[in-house]
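Sorry, I am new here, but would you mind making up a protein's amino acid sequence and the tokens describing how it folds?
***
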Amino acid sequence: MNDIIRPVAAELAQFEAYFAQTMKADTEPMDSIMKYVQVSQGKRLRPVLVLLGAKLFGEINEQTLRAATFVEMVHSATLIHDDVVDNADQRRDKASVKAQFGNLSAVLAGDYLLAKAILLISQPGDYAILQEMLHTAAAMSEGELMQGAVGLSYHDSRNDANPHMRLPQCDSPTDNYLEIITRKTAMLMRSCCVAGALSVNATPEQVQHIADFGLNFGILFQLRDDLLDGENTEQAKALLPSYYEKTLKALEGFAPSEITKALKDLTVFCAERKE
């Protein structure tokens, strides 16, 4: 990843400072929870996509940094809430926020992050980015509920008594699977790329082009994740080669540059990663 992000390494450092400042809370114990969240972060993949999506079409600016901070805050909030729903005590080899601070604190911390993220990206000129992100946040919630419905229909006989938890019939389990991972994961990756492009006033055609890359990349990322986690392995193994090709193909329309190369290298890394 260090080699891949080198074209935006300086801007990523700016993001880290901006993110740390934005995460500060005015009161305890919320500030302690926010500090704990910061040291529990992963590879910063989503902010990196925002930065690369911006630098592909222009110069990274403060709106880009706000957008990158927004997506990382939203992503962090969803992970905190997921751990409460899943009763998970570990997150990236550390105690989850839920385990460290309790369920109530975790729910409130996730809500706090979402509210603060929306405030951050509600400045004049941010409307297009905010609209993009809020549509995605709604889709992510739908995806989580769809996954729960599929889990009940496959594993819980009580689903017969709970018709509200049934999914509409799709053509195949693979269609259901793709719909869920698109909403849960891929749409956020797509919005990261779109937000970066919007922050530098990319044309509608450029925005659509990078959106196509982001969506396919997000699906590819989740397919690989599922294979590594031993989940949905039959569907993921069957779909991964085609989405690898689709993601690379989405980059063909961009002129050769260090940013295009970074996106291509990121795609290869995503498809082949071991953890």
About this structure: The first helix runs from residue 9 to 22. Residues 152-169 have pLDDT under 50 and may be disordered. The beta strands are 90-91, 94-95. The CA atoms of residues 59 and 192 lie 16 Å apart.
